[in-house]
Amino acid sequence: MQTEVRELLKKSRLSITDSRQRILDLFLRTEGALSHADIEKRIADGIDRVTIYRTLQVFEEKGIIHTIPSADNSIKYALCKEDCAEGHHHDNHVHFVCDSCSKTICLDHVHVPDIKLPKGFYPRESNMVVSGVCSECL
Amino acid sequence: MQTEVRELLKKSRLSITDSRQRILDLFLRTEGALSHADIEKRIADGIDRVTIYRTLQVFEEKGIIHTIPSADNSIKYALCKEDCAEGHHHDNHVHFVCDSCSKTICLDHVHVPDIKLPKGFYPRESNMVVSGVCSECL
DNA sequence: GTAACTGCAAAATATTTGCATCCTT
DNA sequence: AAGGATGCAAATATTTTGCAGTTAC
Description:
The structure is a homodimer. The first copy, chain A, is built from 4 helices and 6 strands.
């Protein structure tokens, strides 16, 4: 397994276990976001389902991955870029879900625009998900 | 039960049943969005859980309500305004989730801005959820 | 009367928790 | 050695499906 994976875990002060390495490695090798089910499917020789739940939770708390909201009861997770820190996400980019291949992609360079809210509303965090057709499915 | 409820159902060519009237009435009386669980809790003398699932599904198909994506595996539903039609939602407004009272509110007058996507990406629909503090929780 | 809707039971899924064991540091 | 992580079993919770009885039109 790559050194990169171990470095990432070390940076987050997480012990370097086999499951964590394999799950994080999968994220690094995957373009686009992964759901719990995706991970279960794609890690051949099984990590326990419960361990996946716990790993995703820890990774999210540590700012290694962030969640992408969805309207179909299936949260997806994607790697955070450098500017995420423990307990403090800055996944301030637009997410794209392809209607055709149903991949979910972080458009890291497309920022969520600031919104003028009505009087009395104070924003903390914005999330934007655009669906349509991705560049590979034209 | 109000005439408004029956009119709405009639307009969508749905038969006017007790469950549908009560669920739709709840939406009309509620500010903000409702999850399946909310509905179950707030309709005192129980409608079957399964009926609630099926009713929400039909309402969504008919353009009476729309879903609001979330990052916690709990879809919320909110009434559509006039411009939603069968199989064709235009809930093109920003949704606000209050961190304090955790209400989800449709900001009907705040439109989701158009986004400039990278080459090759074609948008069909955008969703935006802003969280923070709402005007009642200041 | 007929098609559509509902409730119940049950199946299928998904998520959480407790605990004994194993692994990392 | 000690604390944390994992797997397993089991408890909960959520969603889906089939079907028989009921209701709207």
